[in-house]
Design goal:
This protein is an alpha/beta fold. The protein has a single domain, classed as Ribonuclease Z/Hydroxyacylglutathione hydrolase-like (Metallo-beta-lactamase, Chain A), CATH 3.60.15. Helices cover 41% and strands 19% of the residues. The protein is built from 10 helices and 15 strands. It has a 7-stranded mixed β-sheet. A 6-stranded mixed β-sheet has the order 8-9-10-11-14-15, covered by helices on one side. The longest helix has 26 residues. The chain binds zinc ion. Zinc ion binds next to loops.
């Protein structure tokens, strides 16, 4: 299968066609990239990015959150391209914490094993991280900027970026994770209620393009709205299902196993089973604490 190494999303935004992990590069006076995918893709990203930039620099990488599959290639790419990192305060704290960095590396090593990557690459602590928050503006070039929108719920550290004036939304996993079959899966790992509120907030932005962190981008204001509506519906449906299972058993791990086996995910996209179980268990716990548990 041969792919072009990058393609155009809009006049201002190009996409590195890394399978499962499209990486968006915003061109301008200061080139910027959203997220860094997994460590296993570092070599491929470096190659495609160099081809795309053609000798220009990469001034910054903006991280939507701290998950291992969004930051994995970050430290290796930072060594090559020397960019500044822009992230939420929580993401910055996590990436500056030794134990968290070791955990992120561990999940990346497991992903590499799944991907038959036997190289000795490791994830190390990234440098030069600048924290941003709600309504902060990041200027990119004359008349073009990114606005920060806090969208917690997928994780506590999740933020989205809205490119102005084009209204292109980079939401990380806050809008849900779309599978290769086009279905969107909810991933409310830190809080169901915050995740639902963040989805509504994203709907209110009326973006022209929704640039998802996995597999695809959605173009056109109407299609973006339809996608986010569908994501919201799937989110509420999963909540109802978990609540009904919690009525049958209080074994949260068994419910998580059942969701993983019956409902979720293609491991090719979602990584090692350990990471999946962490994610699904977190969703069950969130529903339990926010809707079922009697305080
Ligand atoms: Zn994530």
């Amino acid at each position: 299968m041969s792919h072009r190494s990058f393609s155009e999303l809009t006049a201002a935004v190009q996409v590195l066609n890394v399978s499962m992990f499209p990486l968006y590069v915003i061109r301008g006076e200061h080139n910027a990239m959203i997220d860094c995918a997994v460590l296993a893709k570092a070599g491929e990203i470096e190659e495609r990015l160099s081809a795309l930039l053609g000798g220009e620099g990469l001034a910054m990488v903006l991280l939507t959150h701290s998950h291992y599959d969004h930051v994995g290639a970050c430290s290796i790419l930072q060594d090559k391209f020397g960019f500044q990192i822009i992230a939420s305060r929580r993401t910055k704290d996590i990436l500056e914490n030794d134990r968290a960095v070791a955990f992120i590396d561990d999940l990346n090593q497991k992903f590499k094993a799944l991907a038959n990557d036997r190289g000795d690459s490791i994830f190390t602590k990234p440098r030069e991280i600048r924290a941003v928050g709600e309504n902060d503006h990041i200027p990119l070039s004359a008349g073009r900027r990114l606005e920060v929108v806090e969208t917690p719920g997928h994780t506590r550290c999740s933020i989205s970026f809205l490119l102005r004036p084009e209204n292109i939304l980079f939401a990380g996993d806050a809008a849900g994770v779309v599978e290769t079959n086009g279905r969107v899966k909810p991933l409310f790992l830190s809080s169901y209620s915050q995740y639902e509120a963040s989805l509504k907030k994203l709907l209110g932005l009326e973006a022209e393009v929704l640039a998802l962190a996995h597999n695809t981008a959605v173009r056109g204001k109407d299609r973006v709205r339809e996608f986010l509506d569908a994501s919201l519906a799937e989110t509420r449906a999963l909540k109802e299902k978990i609540i009904s299972w919690l009525g049958q058993t209080d074994d949260l791990t068994r419910i998580a196993e059942r969701i993983l086996d019956e409902e979720y995910f293609s491991p090719t996209l979602m990584g090692p089973r350990e990471a999946l179980m962490i994610n699904v268990t977190a969703m069950v716990k969130s529903i339990y604490h926010e809707f079922v548990k009697i305080p």
